[in-house]
Design brief:
Layout (H helix, E strand, L loop, with lengths): L11 H8 L3 H17 L14 H10 L1 H4 L5 E5 L7 H7 L7 E6 L2 H13 L4 E5 L11 E5 L4 H12 L4 E6 L3 H8 L3 E9 L7 E11 L1
Parallel strand pairs: 1-2, 1-4, 2-3, 4-5
Antiparallel strand pairs: 5-7, 6-7
Helix pairs in contact: 1-3, 2-5, 3-5, 7-8
Catalytic activity: guanosine(527) in 16S rRNA + S-adenosyl-L-methionine = N(7)-methylguanosine(527) in 16S rRNA + S-adenosyl-L-homocysteine
Keywords: Cytoplasm, Methyltransferase, rRNA processing, S-adenosyl-L-methionine, Transferase
InterPro entries: rRNA_ssu_MeTfrase_G, SAM-dependent_MTases_sf
Length: 213
Amino acid sequence: MVETTLPEVNDSAGFQAASGCSDQALADLESYRSYLADWNQRMNLIGPATLDIYWNRHAWDSAQLLRLAPDALTWADLGTGAGLPGIVLAILGKDRPGFHVHLVESMAKRCRFLTEVVTGLQLPATVHQSRAEDLSLAVDIVTARACAPLSRLLGYGRPYLRLGADALFLKGQDVGAELEDAAKSWDFEADVLPSLSDVRGQIVRVRRLGRGR
């Protein structure tokens, strides 16, 4: 059964208690936060105000996906932007043999940021400057956060799902309307799971995606 009680993740200690991460992973997440703060002064990566709630809004919101797919080793994060959730997943999976995250982003300047973080923190991740739907990677899980409405996300994720991936898409409180809209164009099976970072958040898990209608 998926947890529904939201843990208190207001700081790094709260994050470590909720996630069970190592001290090294926590240090890497602190470094990632510093990268975000630095680069955010030059380009729009995340809302500046969300740096103050980084541990819950960004780190824990991303990390919770690992609970839904604990055995998954390969991930593709579509339209990753600032690296959320992909960078967080790569940090937490850094010491797991075979763990790898594909960070898919079409904007060159964001890819430069992602490459600096991946290189600086020596993460098990590959940056792909590409449109999500133009790649076809064999992964266990395809994910996305704040990337596009579900109807478009299914199109982006279809090449990965066709190769056997499941999808975990982080969504907000309007997920019901998105599912209804997506059903007009796609034949798919999905369930909706509660977020552990925000009572308004939802996670759409897609296990099967048929042809668009």
